Amino acid sequence: MARSVLVTGGNRGIGLAIARELAATGDAVAVTHRSGEPPEGLFGVRCDVTSQADVDAAFDKAEAEHGPVEVVIANAGITKDTLLAMMKEETFTDVIDTNLTGAYRVAKRAVRPMLRLKRGRIILISSVVGLLGSAGQANYAASKAGLVGFGRSLARELASRNITVNIIAPGFVESDMTAALTEEQQQLIRKQIPLGRQAHAAEIARVVRFVASDDASYITGAVIPVDGGLGMGH
């Protein structure tokens, strides 16, 4: 039976790959996007995760279209990279508000129907940077590390209601952002990765598909790295 799925930031990159992967398995997928048009073939809702009203409205629309949301992937995120000495406070708080507090807003709204259904999957998209650290990304790393503590706390709160909460930690993924780097910069990144290459977004999406499936019903509170070995031991 098709499940109602909501992917935040699902109009491009990793989020779009996740949305398409779950749709291909038969789920009814809605994606949120802040701007532009929704991806072809997917139900799109405009939403800024820094607004609780936007998040609530996005869930209302997804539920009206597909029924109560059983699987939510909190993927929406931003970067504003700056060295700490030059980082303005709003540069720090903007990233926290989108990446971490945004996930709180999404999870809070997602939990209500899941508690009534007595089942659900909450999947938070973190980053290897949250565990490894990255110069110039103190704000981003803090937000992504925060998802680990947040997700594990939720996993303990919700396990008795058959709701699992897991955290996916991707490494460097081929994207528009990495495509803008010079070949020299990309080679430097690849040298740090034991598998010697960046990930394809589809490789992240397939792990999410597994974690969202019945096969992963006994996994909760896990941090699952998909990083080519970059963050090994963290």
Summary of the model, kept short:
The chain is 46% helix and 16% strand.
CATH superfamily: NAD(P)-binding Rossmann-like Domain
Number of helices: 8
Largest sheet: 7 strands, parallel
Enumerate the strands of the largest sheet in spatial order, edge to edge or round the barrel. 3-2-1-4-5-6-7
Instruction: Indicate the CATH architecture.
Output: 3-Layer(aba) Sandwich
Per CATH, the class reads Alpha Beta
Could you tell me the CATH topology label: Rossmann fold
Bin the strand percentage.
15-25%
Rg is 17 Å
Unreliable spans are none
Helix fraction bin: 40-55%
SSE order, one letter for each helix or strand: EHEEHEHEHHEHHHE
Quaternary: single chain
The total domain count is: 1
Mean pLDDT across residues: 95
Derived from helix and strand composition plus strand pairing, the structural class reads alpha/beta
GO molecular function, one term: oxidoreductase activity
Family: Belongs to the short-chain dehydrogenases/reductases (SDR) family.
GO biological process, one term: monocarboxylic acid metabolic process
Pfam families: adh_short_C2
Q: What's the structural blueprint in terms of helices and strands?
A:
Blueprint: E1 4-7, H1 13-24, E2 28-33, E3 43-46, H2 52-66, E4 69-74, H3 89-117, E5 120-125, H4 128-132, H5 138-158, E6 163-170, H6 176-179, H7 183-192, H8 201-212, E7 223-226
Parallel strand pairs: 1-2, 1-4, 2-3, 4-5, 5-6, 6-7
Helix pairs in contact: 1-8, 2-3, 3-5
Can you describe this structure?
With 234 residues, the chain is an alpha/beta fold. The chain has a single domain, classed as 3-Layer(aba) Sandwich (Rossmann fold). Helices cover 46% and strands 16% of the residues. It contains eight helices and seven strands. A seven-stranded parallel sheet has the order 3-2-1-4-5-6-7, sandwiched between helices. Strand 4, helix 3 and strand 5 form a beta-alpha-beta unit. Helix 3 runs parallel beside helix 5. The radius of gyration is 17 Å and the shape is globular. The mean pLDDT is 95.
